[in-house]
Amino acid sequence: MSELVESETSPLGQPRSGGPVAMRLENVAVSFNGRTAVRDATFDVTKNRVTSLIGPSGSGKTTLLRALNRLHDLTPGAKVSGRILLEGTDIYRGNITVTELRSRVGMVFQRPNPFPTMTIYENAVSGLRFNGIKKKAILDEAAESSLRAAALWDSVSSRLKVTAGQLSGGEQQRLCIARALALDPEVLLMDEPTSALDPIATLHIENLMTTLKSRVTIIIVTHNMQQAARISDDCAFLLMGEDRAGELIEFDATEKIFNNPADSRTLDYTLGRFG
Amino acid sequence: MVLLPDLLPQPEEVAEFSSATSSRSWYHYLLIAVSLLFTLVSVGFVLSILLKSLPTWAHTGTLLTSRVWQPPNGPYGGLAMIVGTLETSIIALAIAGVVGLGTSIAIVFLIPRRLRNIVATFIELLAAVPSIVYGLWGFLVLAPFMLNTVDPWLNSWPFAKEVLGTSGQEFGSSLLLAAIVLSVMILPTFVAISREVIAAVPQDLIEASLSLGATRWQMIKDVVLPTARIGLFGATFLSLARATGETVAVALVAGGVANMQFHLLYPGTSIASWIALEFGEAQGNEISALMALGILLMAISFSLSLVSRWLVNRQRKLLAKV
User: Fold this and answer.
1) Tell me, what DSSP letter sits at residue A8?
2) Is the pLDDT of residue B13 over 70?
């Protein structure tokens, strides 16, 4: 972990000097029926790095993550304020449709959730089909390359026509990653992607993330601090405030967050003193 | 009323009686006695109908082959009623299935949350309206409308007379009218179950599809409906069971004529309504033949209900796995 980050730490609200920015969050807050669930999230997600969101339950990590591909649109009474920029475009008010946004910002969920009635192949190409691509040659190629990228091709290439439910939990989650990768997204959101998996499968997914970051920028929510320390380059620490709304306490290089954080609460949390 | 199989998780099995109390008290024996009595009554019920219908199966044997029903000397053929039951039920199901599926999708995905429960409750209350009310409405309101407006319009299409028969039957009674009344009657049953099945599709599958750039319609068509399909078949079979057993309303609007009839604008009858219309004046062998029709109807209803329960259970297991 030692020499990963050379850029100097910048104060909250300022772009990090690290590299090109994939997503920029400016004062992002999410509320449900007027109740704030998370606020004051301001940080830059740097391209081709893994950014982790950590914090105790109720600190708004998942809520914040789901704002990044507009999944809160489904929830009546949900409101996202502030600005979230994808390559400079405001994803809520800018010139981008929600379906285009979601094909550029993919998501992997907590529970492996391949579509149970579809085959492995159909799952892998489902995103492309949703986006209107029908040519078999394109779909075949995307299926193979995304399954390869998710390190699943070798074990499933001979049984692409079986339903996804026949795979193990870890394989299902890798299929979900492949399904998201098939659209060649710029950013991949992962909401505690290993919390339902055994240690071996977890290790596979973690290795996969490290490989994948050359191809896609990853933002991961995790409860597991060791995981955040192992795999992420940058880290955002959130905490529930006095009014039970989560807020961003600190954002920095993961190494800094875990070894030399600016805020004493961050240190207390990473040392396991609470949460 | 049809029992609605629910998709919700079943409560834990009730703990065994004897494990709680070692000495068995009087109500333990009372409960056993009551349940034995119930079993005896059910067995006796089926046996007595079987016995009464025996002459038909043993002697005349024309129930499943003849289309003529001719008291007092026979033959007693059930083909007209069987065919009429199938025609009216299947057409009713086709109408209720299309309308009901759209309604269920709208309730779950399109209607604002606040209105959702009101609409759903209202539709399910329709299932509690007594059949005779639907029958009256069919006879007094829908039949004249069919007679004066719909039937002539249908007949204005090319080949319609050859396929549907000619319009203008007495009172407007016809198999088509019976099918339409039936479709209104089974719609609440279909909606009640299909809505539950659709709402039980896990939220994270819905979110997964939207996260892949699916539109709302693609999400419904490619993910929700395929995932719910087994349960939807269950809803279909249960509605069909209700339609085949429906008596009073069909007796009022189908015309009550024992003609095996493929022209839907002509009057006909169904098994259940034929029993209701005939039993008052039946004697001797006709009673036995009606009983045999009753057994046939029971067998159809039982098997449809069993299939639907099996399907809804399979759906529950499928959802437990994903």
Assistant:
1) P
2) no
